[in-house]
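A quick aside before the break. I want you to see a complete sequence-to-structure record at least once, exactly as it would be stored in a machine-readable document. Don't worry about memorizing anything.
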Amino acid sequence: MQTLKKYTKEAFMAITSLGTVFFYTIIFLFLFFIKEFTIAKHIAIGLILCYLFVFVLRIFYFKERPEKEEYYNLFTRINASSFPSLHAMSSIYVAIVLANHIKKSIISIFLVSISLLIAYSRIYLKKHYFVDIMLGLILGIIASIIYLLIINFS
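That is the input. The structure line, written in tokens, reads:
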């Protein structure tokens, strides 16, 4: 039983890493490499705005994570705050933007499913509470709707 728990935790750690700047950089570079410059630019700008929004919100509102993290300065304090979930916000934003660009139902379902798995991994790993995840998902959906409105009217 202990082995199963260990492997489950490792699996969720791998899944949660799909919602990091490192992974988004890989996506950006891949899109750039295949000459999908516009979508790469839209993802990069949207992610920068998601990160800025969450960082500003966390400066003014601090909420402890389920497993408290120590902080020593403003940057580590922002990182130690759990509200809202940046992983949830950024992953659903990227999923919706990519799904809109690719326009294949099965890929859209896959991308949103991965995003929801990333969001759940944050709860499983005790980095966020349910409300942190829900607000992150809502903010990511709002950001992607704004993105879709902007590209459809430009």
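Two observations worth writing down. The chain has one domain: 2-153. Helices lie at 2-16, 21-33, 37-60, 74-80, 86-102, 105-124, 130-153. We'll return to this after the break.
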